[in-house]
Structures are given as C-alpha cells and as structure tokens.
Amino acid sequence: MNQTCCPQYTIRCQALHFQASKSHKKVLKKMLKFISKGDVLKVVSEEEPMDSHIEDVAACDFPYKSESQVSQSELTPLAVDHAERVENEDKDSGETKEEGNMQKVESDSVQICADKDTPVPAEPSHSAKAVRAPPKPGKGADLSKPLCRKAKDIRKERKLQKLLQNQTGTLEGSQLQGDQAFLLQNSKPKTNQPKNIEDFIFAPLPDDAQHKLEVRVVRSSPPSSQFKATFQESYQVYKRYQMVIHKDPPDKPTINQFTRFLCDSPLEAEHAPNGPECGYGSFHQQYWLDGKIIAVGVIDILPYCVSSVYLYYDPDFSFLSLGVYSALREIAFTRQLHEKAPDLCFYYMGFYIHSCPKMRYKGQYRPSDLLCPETYVWTPIEQCLPLLEHSKYSRFNQDGKAVDEGRLKELGRVRVLHKRTVMPYNVYKKRRKGPSDEASVQQYASLVGQTCSERMLLFRS
C-alpha cells in the first residue's frame, strides 16, 4: 500500500450508532416528497443538488482570500455617516422592538429565512430612502432586511398563540408575562432526540401517494427464482448505467461481463439458526418504483456485517441521489438484520481512498473506522484524517510497539491442496520436486495471516 499512488483503506460504519447528516436527511426527505407528491420539478428546485461522491459541501459562497490577497480598501473601517446611520437604526429598532414582537405573534404570515429552500423577500422599509444599495463586500449584513429566525422559534410562537387564545378570563400584565414564560417552557418537547433514518424511510405515506417504492432482497448466488425472473430487467438497468454514467461503449457491458462482475460469488448460501431470515451470502437489493426496477444494490450479508459491493441505477432517476439513498437504506437494513442476528452490526463500504476526492464521500457516514494497514486494528476515522492529509499512506495505530496479532508465526501449518489432497505445507515441502517455492508461500501466508492460512487452501500443482 505504501507504494501505490492511491492507498485503499478498508472502511466500516458502525451502523447501530449511525447519525445522519443534514445532507443525508435532505436526500431522504427528497425521496419521501417525490413518492408522496410526485412533483419532480418541485423536488429538484427546492432541494440542494446532491452528489453521491461529494456531500456536505461548504455552505459559504464567498471566495476565500489569503491575507496577502486582501486589498487595503477592503480593510478600511466603516465611514462615519454609515456608522451614524447604523446607530440611529439600532435606536429606532430598540423603541419598536416590543411592539414588533407582539405583531409577529398575532400575525400568521411571518416571514422567516430558516427554510433554506424558500427565498425570503425583504420587508417594506420605513426609511425615507427609496433606493437600497446592496451591501458591499466586507461591510456586514444588509440592515434593511429582517433578521433570520429559526423555524423552531416560529412554531413555538404559534403554539403559544393558540394556548393563549384558549385561556379564559383577564390576566394582568405581570401575570400574562409569567404565564407566557411558563407556557414557553412547557411547550418544549420532553426529549429532543434527532430523527433517525428509519423515521424518514418508513414514514407513513398519504392515501393519494403518487408513487410506490418497494425494496426487494433476492439471492444472486446461487440464483433464486426471483432473481432469475428479474435478471433481464436488472441487466438492462446495469447496461444503461454503465453507458451513461461511466461512458462504456455498448459492447462492453455484456451479459457475461455483468454475470461475472455482480452475480457470480464465491460465498456459499447458509441459513444459521440465529442468523437473519434471508440467510448469509450474496444478494441483490432491488428498488422497484411503480413496478419497475430503478436501482440495484449488490451486497453480501455476512455474520458480522453487510458489505456493499456495487450500485447501479437508471440514469433517468439521478435526481433522487440514489447513491446516497441506497447507502442509507443499506445501513437501515443492517440495523434490521441486527435484531435477529445480534453479532451483525457493521456496514462495510469497501475501500476509503483519501487521495481520490470522489471516494472521500464514504467518510461522511459517521461513526466509521479505518483499518490500520500494519497492525490491522480499527481506528476512528477522525484520528486518521489528519494523518492522511500529511501523507497518503499512514500507519493509524500510534503505538510503535504494536504488531499484527494475526501475523504468520508457523509457515509449516499453512494448508495446501496438492494432487487433490489437503496437507500442511511442511508435508508438501518434503514431497515437492523441483525448486523451492517457500518464498511465494511465505508471501501468501503473510498477506492472509496465520488464522486464514490454516482455514484456506493454497493450490499447488
């Protein structure tokens, strides 16, 4: 790994403790809105553009300037007349603050800018000036516009207004203020727990929902009857995805290539008594929208994890950010399997490549861990990122004396398959004729470790 241009680090997400980011929730809300209302244009225009490779981009649109790039004119303090105008406006606003707050409580048409998706027009100004010049860079906020308010505060005010309307009798001013404070305090929810991904994925839909989304898990190896029945439709989605998204020529994504790449698997199907109902092995997680396959997630279900292999989808539905949505669904699926199989609690996302910007999106699914390439110990990604910023290859385990506990210790115990006979390497070594192959066996065993080398078979002709 220290010799390649793009070191690949195994990454896993702690699915049971996963907390969705704002961008993750936006994708879930977008899908929920699309299924409920079916208004594609509205969904696309209201939500921020999402990319399965780049998430949580910086919200600030102002270009960054270093200290040497800032001109002296931009560092000039505010002019005197401007400072006086700001001071006068602060005085006027202080005198009318209480009256303005009462008007906001009584009015149902309160303008807020907490909703990022809806632009807020400026309120009419009481100033004598009719022309409003936009704020200059470095001069601060536009004082002619109202301050941004949180939607939570607006809802709290409306709830308080309804509670006050239901009160009977006349209250004195001091009593009214005391009751207002009491109502505000008790209007807060008892628990301020954030919504989890299941709250969005399994949210109840209206009776007149415009679309129906169904997720089916079918075994791909050995192929189940459901997999065989949907093979052609699934392949056509894969072919179009490869041609449109990855620009493959039409003759490259053939049926044989698709089968070798995403259908054939070395994993054997197994049903354990304490395992999930679907069993262990390789599966295709099909996303059906109104009776049509729009995406397929290729996954492996193992005793300790769900491993994400690949995703392909219909390019016509790219606006739904299916890369992000499928990852969140697979995390929720991992949690669901954990209820039946307690040891199954991780979601593996393949490899994290910090030197490749398009692959950094995997680090946004927190909490997650990277595997140390030298000691094979899981390390929180927050501790790994500073090291990777300094060097593309890094040892994450900071204990200099730590070594791989599963390293090769006895080469002679490596299992070998020779002439249809299973034997340890020390027996095979005596029977072998010709030059020694100990160096290649040593390299193999050091890569897989002592435990795996005694469970796997190394073929020798």
Q: Would you give an account of this structure?
A:
The chain is α+β, with helices and mostly antiparallel strands. Helix content is 35%, strand content 15%. It is built from 14 helices and eleven strands. It has helices spanning 22-37, 40-46, 80-95, 97-106, 151-165, 173-186, 197-201, 225-229, 231-244, 255-263, 322-340, 381-390, 425-431, 438-453; strands at residues 9-14, 213-221, 281-289, 292-301, 305-313, 346-352, 368-371, 378-380, 415-418, 421-424, 458-460. An eight-stranded mixed beta sheet has the order 2-3-4-5-6-1-7-8, with helices on both faces. Strand 9 and strand 10 form a beta hairpin. The chain is globular, with a radius of gyration of 30 Å. The two termini are 29 Å apart.
Helix/sheet category: alpha+beta
List the strand order in the largest sheet. Answer: 2-3-4-5-6-1-7-8
Poorly predicted segments: 42-86, 95-130, 168-174
Count the beta strands: 11
* N- to C-terminal distance: 29 Å
**Beta-strand content:** 5-15%
Oligomer: single chain
Provide tags for this entry.
single chain, 461 residues, alpha+beta, eight-stranded mixed β-sheet, 11 strands
Lay out the secondary structure:
Elements: E1 9-14, H1 22-37, H2 40-46, H3 80-95, H4 97-106, H5 151-165, H6 173-186, H7 197-201, E2 213-221, H8 225-229, H9 231-244, H10 255-263, E3 281-289, E4 292-301, E5 305-313, H11 322-340, E6 346-352, E7 368-371, E8 378-380, H12 381-390, E9 415-418, E10 421-424, H13 425-431, H14 438-453, E11 458-460
Parallel strand pairs: 5-6, 9-11
Antiparallel strand pairs: 1-6, 1-7, 2-3, 3-4, 4-5, 7-8, 9-10
